[in-house]
Amino acid sequence: MSEVLSQSEIDALLAAISSGEMNAEELKKEELEKKVKVYDFKRALRFSKDQIRTLTRIHENYARLLTTYFSAQLRTFVQISVASVDQLPYEEFIRSIPKMTILNIFEAEPLEGRMVMEVNPNIAYAMLERLLGGAGTTSNKTGALTEIETIIMERIFSRALDSFMEAWKNVVDMEPELELLEVNPQFMQIVSPNETVAVISFSTKIGETTGMINLCLPHVVLEPLMVKLSAHYWLSTQKKTRDEREIEILQERVRIAKLPLIAELGTSTISVSEFLNLALGDVIQLDQRTEDKVKVLIGRKAKYLATPGTSRGRSAILIEKALEEEGVEEDE
């Protein structure tokens, strides 16, 4: 799409041409020249825009599931949202994360290959402190984790992968399993440096502590699912289909469901004192005459007009007209 200029920019451009600062012929010449777009072969774009949008939708759902999970585990205010979804070489991803961080390396059968959830130390140590009974403020801890700290973190992030499985269930049934927890990115080589990866960045806030959680999904791992990442496929799978047996069961349950049916002879309004002084034999005058049709209510909605009477010695009504939802009468 061509750039749209504001009125002030148009006026400035006309003034520059009029004063001779810009040459109209040169502008036309530049317009005719072929424009070259720089393309970096080391940063190949393997995911289409449609697939990036689908990944965004999937992980927006994952962010909501993580918010619920971490809020329950940490018993404090947690807010997680998708900040960005990018594709870049794996080597660039490694350079972009801190030298000491929390790296959760996991696999998800039936997909082949490994994926990574990188958690900023501020967030990870705030979670750890909160789980150990602290306030969950930012910790200045550096260096390797103790054995107890490692076990605690493995446990909480391993369960976070259950939400990952839930977020992806409309695309593929997978079983994520935490393989390794690492703190040094230099010791983590899950794919070749030039391999394209999708990086989903989550903005995370725990109490007053903020940081990022980055999910690294290599293209080579997601390759079997690329067709399913189209918007058409993903949205179609959200429409739940029922087999014929389910429909029959549902229809049968609707048929045998019981509804309250009330024939309303009329209404009346009395005061509280009159109500309290009611005695046997008192007469309450209704707002309908004996020859008027009575309303038949299903639940709280008037559906029919009927004539009261008796049948085989019991009180009965004869339904004569049906009412529309708006209350307008119509013949059967």
Terminal CA distance reads 60 Å
Number of strands: 11
The helical percent reads: 25-40%
Number of helical elements:
10
Q: How do the SSEs run, as a string of H and E?
A: HHHEHEEHHEEEHHHEHEEEE
Query: Would you tell me the overall average pLDDT?
Result: 81
Question: How is the main sheet built?
Answer: 6 strands, antiparallel
Low-confidence stretches: 327-332
Count of separate structural domains: 3
Structural class: alpha+beta
CATH superfamily of the largest domain: CheC-like
Strand order of the largest sheet: 1-5-6-3-2-4
Task: Specify the overall morphology.
Answer: elongated
Beta-strand content estimate: 25-35%
Rg from C-alpha positions?
34 Å
How does this structure look, described?
With 332 residues, the chain is of the alpha+beta class. The chain folds into three domains: 7-36, no CATH class; 43-237, 3-Layer(aba) Sandwich (Chemotaxis protein chec); 258-330, Surface presentation of antigens (SPOA), CATH 2.30.330. Helices cover 35% and strands 26% of the residues. It is built from ten helices and eleven strands. The strands form two sheets. Strands 1-5-6-3-2-4 form a six-stranded antiparallel sheet. Strands 7-8-9-10-11 form a five-stranded antiparallel sheet, with no helix packed on it. Strand 5 and strand 6 (209-218) form a beta hairpin. Helix 3 packs across helix 6 (147-167). Residues 327-332 have low confidence and may be disordered.
